[in-house]
Design brief:
Layout (H helix, E strand, L loop, with lengths): L4 H21 L6 H8 L3 H7 L4 H18 L11 H18 L4 H9 L4 H27 L9 H22 L3 H16 L3
Helix pairs in contact: 1-2, 1-4, 4-6, 4-7, 5-9, 6-7, 7-8, 8-9
Length: 197
């Protein structure tokens, strides 16, 4: 049965409320009653959209947080058509993680759900696939303009850039330092620029 527009809005309000609670208080401290109060919804509404309870809601919040990872990089990630755009995207990524600090809601949620569960793996896999596809599209844009060599392997290079970013984020979460993330971004972009020299 399809959810109505009003129903989608209610479900979104629940998920957004849960996400805000988790960002402020953590997964362990957030109860369904907290979510209900924050979202202005009733117990029956909450269980209507999330009949399996907290775990099902946490998975929806993980999807919400994964979407934020990409939306926080826009409009730059979707418009990688010049070196200025690449630099703006790089700065947006660094600023996103600087603002977030060492508390990563998505990382916490995926850990809580269990990294090897199908739901958590699906959220992570979809996020990484979409992110890599955007980077690949950007590299192709630059190849069409002759600003990146045609010999550059688009899939391999976009995968390497994404792996570098994720490694930099992991170091940042462990140490609070952004230098590794900045280095991964700077070296990745420099590699693309150097391909036509």
């Amino acid at each position: 049965m399809a959810i109505t527009t009003k129903g989608l809005a209610t479900r979104h309000r629940i998920v957004a409320g849960a996400a805000a609670e988790i960002r402020e208080h953590g997964v362990a401290e957030t109860t369904l009653d907290d979510v209900r109060r924050r979202s202005g919804t009733s117990k029956s509404q909450l269980f209507h959209y999330f009949p399996d309870g907290k775990e099902q809601l946490l998975l929806a919040v993980a999807q919400h947080e994964a979407e934020r990872v990409l939306s926080d990089q826009q409009p730059y990630l979707g418009s990688l058509k010049s070196w200025r755009a690449w630099r703006s995207w790089r700065d947006a990524v660094v600023e996103r993680y600087r603002s977030q600090g060492q508390q990563c809601p998505l990382n916490v949620l995926v850990s809580q759900l269990g990294r090897n569960t199908p739901g958590a793996q699906a959220v992570t896999s979809e996020l990484l696939a979409r992110w890599q596809a955007e980077l690949a599209s950007g590299i192709l844009n630059m190849q069409r303009q002759g600003k990146v060599a045609a010999t550059v392997d688009v899939e391999q290079t976009s995968a390497a850039m994404l792996a570098g970013i994720q490694g930099g984020v992991l170091v940042m979460l462990s140490t609070g330092r952004l230098t590794h993330l900045e280095a991964a971004l700077d070296v990745g972009i420099a590699h693309l620029r150097a391909s036509v020299r």
